[in-house]
Amino acid sequence: MVLQHTDTRPETARYDRYPTRLGTPVPHLERADPTVWGKIDSPELASFDTDGFAIFDELLTPEEVAEFSGEVTRIAADPALRDDDRLIVEKSSNRVRSIFEVHQLSAAVAELVRRPRILRLAEQVLGSEVYVHQSRVNYMPGFRGTGFYWHSDFETWHAEDGMPAPRAVSLSIALTDNYPINGSLMVMPGSHRTFVPCLGSTPAEHYRESLQEQEIGVPTTEDITTLANRYGISQFTGRAGSALLFDSNLMHGSSNNITPFPRSNIFVVFNSVENTLVEPFAAPAPRPSYIGSRDFTPLSA
């Protein structure tokens, strides 16, 4: 059966095909949209439709890793950001956890997201021009780095940002070596084809709590058990400079880092210009633009 491309423009997208943040449990939903909207011609993306992700062993050279590592260290240490909402600190340790809108804070990252090779990968999967829905740097320090519980990004972007369909991809570029032991990302191959409705209503300004520790918009343990038994779990490991491109609905998470080896990455979300945001589907108001951009200007190299 050939899936038809659903028109996800704002004026036609108010019918909610992915209801979530509900009062009672409902069955999982099989994805109503394609995974690949365009034509794949990059060998690295050959299994993207099946797995929901692709791994790139050397997206950045060692010299570029050193350059970007220095850049994100500079940003994290900038005293001007200490009281900026874009800087998120760990709930327990008060260490920097994430810095959002990093492509606006760094000319080097702004150039990175416009590189032809990177844009071409996103455009092949999404079948259109793209814009940056979100960018950030994630830090997971040694010994006390806190992980991210299992979740689908699309569930949050749909509920709280108003993203109509899972027509977005995330690119995670490792700036440090990712070992099996230092909280590297775990994914469930193929889980992007199953949407998991979550329980609970979204409080006002929920993002202030969820960016430190998410408790609403996460699957139940029963959900995770069902998906893990169906799809299995893989882990993204690799040298600094490697990268993971993955579908917005892929179930993923990471454990705490109690090793001496820190982990950090640049994280960029590309959304299709044909899937621009509408009003949130399950939240009282949209999140701030530094989390879910409403500047839909297509990127160009």
Q: Outline of this structure?
A:
With 301 residues, the chain is an alpha+beta fold. It is 21% helix and 18% strand. GO terms for molecular function: oxidoreductase activity.
SSE order, one letter for each helix or strand: EHEHEEHHHEHEEEHHEEEE
Strand content bin: 15-25%
By oligomeric state, this entry counts as: single chain
Mean pLDDT: 91
Helix content class:
10-25%
Helix/strand-derived category reads alpha+beta
Biggest β-sheet: count, sense, barrel? Answer: 7 strands, antiparallel
How are the strands ordered across the major sheet?
2-10-6-12-5-4-3
How many helices? The count is 8
Alpha carbon gap, first and last residue: 36 Å
Globally, the shape reads globular
Q: How many strand segments?
A: 12
Identify low-pLDDT runs: 1-13
Radius of gyration: 18 Å
Description:
It is built from eight helices and twelve strands. The strands form three sheets. Strands 2-10-6-12-5-4-3 form a seven-stranded antiparallel β-sheet. The chain has a three-stranded antiparallel β-sheet with strand order 9-7-11, with no helix packed on it. The chain has a two-stranded antiparallel sheet with strand order 1-8. Strand 3 and strand 4 form a beta hairpin. The chain is globular and about 45 Å long. The N terminus is likely disordered.
